[in-house]
Amino acid sequence: ESKQLIVAPQLDHYGKQILSERRIGYDYLVIALGSRCNDFGIPGVRQQCFTLDSATEAEDLHLTFLNRFLQFSEAAEDEEGSAIKPVHIAIVGGGATGVELAAELYNAVDRFEQVGIKKIHHQSLKVTIIEAMDRILTVLPEAIAEKAHKTLCWFVLVGWAIYPIGYMAGTADGQWYSFVGDLGLNMDIIYNIGDAVNKIGF
Predict the structure, then answer these.
(1) Predicted TM-score (pTM) above 0.70
(2) What is the DSSP secondary structure assignment for residue 38, as one 8-state letter?
(3) What is the dihedral of CA 155, 195, 88, 118, to 10 degrees?
(4) What is the pLDDT of residues 98-140, one digit of tens each?
């Protein structure tokens, strides 16, 4: 017996039909309902954490991330010379999604200065991955997970080393590190090197 799935017409954001009703034949039908993040009943998780169960929640995290760094940039401009605490983000879960998110957050920070948001670099962000097991990427063989962990640490360390040097090169006049300016280093070139390293890593 032929089995068919009837798909309703698809409408655009104006309510105009762009696809008519369709019929799709099948032998076996799998209904994938998706999943929800498990907070394991820990008090406060639902109230304090961002989850990535939907596109709307991902957009919420994205906008909050951008707004927080806009505030950070303004505070850094107002408190020139003062130590500004980095934005600290904790990621619960050291699986593929958590590790990739950590890398992409640092990658996003690198983009801020390119669009004119100043005073933001690798040291402006601190990411902590919280994992119940004794290592990240537990679904992968331990050797691969260990290599991924070391690689991630190496790229973060290099980024933390390169970007402060670039900042010092561009702001050396009248500072205690004015000798850096005498070396003839170009801030933009140093930042581009840092970007290249992070693109390769992330």
Answers:
(1) no
(2) -
(3) 150
(4) 888 888 888 788 777 667 776 777 778 888 888 888 888 888 8
